Amino acid sequence: MLIIDKNNLTASVEEIVNSVKVFDIHTHLYPESFKDLFLYGFDELVTYHYLIAEALRVKEIPYTDFFALSKKEKADFIYDTLFVERTPISESCIGVLTTLNELGLDINCRELDVFREHSKNYSRKEYIDLIFEKANIKKVVMTNDPFDDDEYNFWKNNVELDEHFNSSLRLDYLLNDFRSARYLLIKMGYNVTTSLIGLTKNEIKRFLVDWIKKTKSIYMAVSLPPDFTLPENSTRSILIEDCILEVSYEMNVPFAMMIGVKRQTNPELSIAGDSLGKANIETIEYLCKKYNRNKFMVTMLSRENQHELTVLARKYRNLFIFGCWWFLNNPTLIKEITTIRIELLGLSFMPQHSDARVLDQLIYKWKHSRRIIADVLIEKYGKLLNLGWVLTYEKIQEDVERLFGKNFDDFLLMEL
Ligand code: FIX
Ligand code: ZN
Questions:
Q1: What pLDDT is recorded for position 203?
Q2: Residue 145: CB within 6 Å of ligand 1?
Q3: Looking at domain 3-36+138-413, does it have CATH number 3.20.20.140?
Q4: Which of 86, 92, 241, 394 could form a disulfide bond with 50, CB atoms 3.0-4.6 angstroms apart?
Q5: Do residues 320 and 347 make contact, with C-beta atoms less than 8 angstroms apart?
Q6: What is the pLDDT of residues 249-280, one digit of tens each?
Q7: CB neighbours of residue 210 within 10 Å
Q8: 361 lines ligand 1 (CB under 6 A)
């Protein structure tokens, strides 16, 4: 047993935070068996939609001209704009550099073909292993959308799964565009009418059960706009209250709500055109209270919602809060939000998920977050030491294991 004191605190926490493997519970990654959906390598890294928004903000080129470029041309354009003409100082730019650095590449080489060639030295399988090892990841959760044509076909053809990739059933289309989803459900063999009568609800539940089983999803998920409200008289509310929550309870598959995204604020920016807004916390309160035997996972996109969401989690153990989502995944906000959560909840939440779309991003997303989580922990453990509390290396390791995965495993197993 190693006793922690002021002299070894910082080094011990850093060592533990860097060495505990992470369960990354929300990503947009796929294993190699999903062919073109599996994104990796330099061009994908540099054409991440976070960087598209930053580059098109400062270069006056028609959006359509940019989107007409090939992947390689887009990467050249973004690299020239953000890394050559300017200093790459934003979080997403630094992320690219952190990733290249960790892969052992010289970030000042400026020869993009050198960066491009690097991933080609490995088979896809080897590259996944390399990135998981560098990022120190145990498992990731994919975002699996049966309403997406490409993805649907992989599942229909019994795509090979990989034990490092868990699934989650994504229901945006069903809940945010039921009219269009209905046609696809009919095509998939479910007898769904326009009015949500008993038969249709049963068919939707049948769809949910079938697809949870087919994909082996460990939770269902949806992203929702800032004005998401329950209870209300809407198709979405009927689908959630009468279909999803029933299946979620019966199958012990939590319902994850990612709340606060304003889709296509600037449609010309395509995937980079989404924004955010403050949402209504009462909706989550209503759900946690009324459906107190259901499990809810929630992350919110607006900074303004973070404090009230954390307070609500103190009131309901069926509410699991996770991650610093998307526009919150910046050092200043991760530090603030993680501190608020630790101060109000102790260790009972999941501080981060990567949201990685490109395999290589796991490296920087987790390296940057681990640094901040370690800083927050060092400060709090320091306070305990000042009070004379006896801390051990093993205990800190247990704490970090909770934050990096065990809390979520326990939540899945919890009996309500
Ligand atoms: O809805 C989501 O899961 C979002 O995370 C994404 O759609 C978003 O585009 C993203 O990549 C955020 O990091
Ligand atoms: Zn996401």
A1: 98
A2: no
A3: yes
A4: 92
A5: no
A6: 999 999 999 999 999 999 999 999 999 999 99
A7: 14
A8: no
